[in-house]
Amino acid sequence: MLGSRLVKYRAEIDGLRALAVISVVIFHFYPAHLGFGYLGVDIFFVISGYLITAHLLHNQSMPYAGYLQHFYVRRIKRLFPALFVFLLATSVLVSAVYLVADLKKFLQSLIATQTFWANWYFWRDGGYFGGNDQIKPLLHMWSLSVEEQFYIIFPTFLFLLALLGRRVSFAAGGGIILATAGSFLLWFHLNRIGGENPAFFLLPTRAWEFGLGAIAAYVHGANRFQKVTQNGLLAYLAVALFAIGFFYPVSLVANTIIVTCGAALFILCTANERNLAFRLFSLPVPREIGKISYSLYLYHWPIAAVMLYILVEPPGFLMAFAGILLSVLLGWLSYRFVETPFRYKLPFWQTLSLVIAMALLSIAITLSVIKLTPPSNASKLAENGGTHFRCPASAYIPYGASRACRIGQDGAVRREIVLLGNSHAQMFAPLVSDVLAGQGMSGLLVPLNSCLPTTTINIDTVCLAHAERNLEAVMADPDVKMVVIASTWYGNDYVDVYGQKSDKENLPAAFLDLRDRLKREGIEMVLFSPLPVPYQDLASELPRLIKFGRLEETELEGRLRKDWLSFHTEYAALNETFRQGLGNAYLEVYRDLCDAEYCYFGQGSEMFYADSNHLSQHALERLELTRAQLQAFIGARAPFVTLEGR
What we know:
By secondary structure, the protein is an alpha/beta fold. The chain has 26 helices and 14 strands. Helix 1 runs antiparallel to helix 2, helix 1 runs parallel beside helix 15 and helix 3 runs antiparallel to helix 16.
């Protein structure tokens, strides 16, 4: 047992922190210049896994209660003062700038951040890479919540492992390797089946990155692999992996693995102070940036988000650079006057007092502004921004190439209807679910992120394979008697089953091919028509333009509509093809959104679109003709009779 010693300071790890935070900051201010810069967070996870494991292994001789107390006091003093001061500062800034509708969403994210489940909140609230996500000031707090959840679980996990074996190091090493492998397989599987969002945000699918750092700590502590850990060539390989992972796009999965493994290899193989990688990362500038990296990470994202919120358009090069300089300044001030004093000089009770005061004050300020600000048309418009339907996590079941979500009548066993497609199928899920429930029926939503449901042409060959698996699962399901399809129609880049480019004009034939395949199995098909989409996130952009004086409310009506003729011209041939091929099974949704002159994206203070192309949940209530047509079509066939030969 090793007692309560401190782990030796490694200057090059501060340099590695600098690489991580610089890549994230550049990605957020100049996303076009470093498309994989967000992987800096993955480096932070590996560093955390290494340092936490090293500290825990160095304090194993303490009793369990003292062991936990020692660990959590250090973590709280290290992280909480800077975090909660930052949250107060951000609350003041956002309360002064944001519309009330957006401020209400900020308050929810603030509470989620303070209680360390922001990763779950942002997973369910949308994602990380969407346009509307880029104006959420606390979006980056998902990563801190993942770290805090790791800190809650891992010390006890490591302590229990120590009780399982006669030798602590053997039990710890074996347990960490198994947990890391399991987490990696889960992460890989979710990415393969279209679960990129939960794979990105949740601890079980991120634990493998902490685990790689923990393995590096275990190897260093065991002192058995000195020839490996002091191999300078492996350290250079780690730097090469960073270059490849950040600058050479392969795929989200591949680049994540490359950067994360590079971080673990770097930590493992730079202990030899004679190698060049150590000396480069230990230089004064990267070392000092690494020291302020936590506070810099905290402040940079709200600055980027608020700039975008005010400007509506991405800031120019010089303004973005000014945002970076301001982030560095605030990061240094936080490190100098908050992090350092509370971590090294002030007693623990003062830390807790500060945290409680900052938490209550930030909520009070935000809530007061929400309550005291008079209602406005701009804020009313903004309420529908980002209002996408999300299945409850408990409603998902494995199905086809990915997963399905139960919709319709609660408790119904038979699943006669499948709503199949991409995010537009998910968009229509509340409408279809209501219609099914009204008939006492249940069904499944089977969404395939970004991919069409068609099996002859699609976005790419991977989508073709997944769409085929989903279709085969539907056709093999004995309960399914009808498939309702909703998809996007405005793309231009498609491929056929041979990987050759296919024209947009082939889309109608691809959907009619689906109809024919389903019909041969005795399954009817219903199809939602194209929508007159705005191609702009009007629910987010227009209210901000009004608030900051760049759009008069008298001009709003013209921005919330497009000429009927332009939409009709674009889709007339397609609509006629489907009217002839599907009859009443073709749901012409645009009839609810268009009149003889215009198609509408909103009216008055009501916004029909949640973003650039998805209907808001509020807008689904307006689809009276579509609802009636779907009710009539399903009602005429319910209850379904089991067909022979199925």
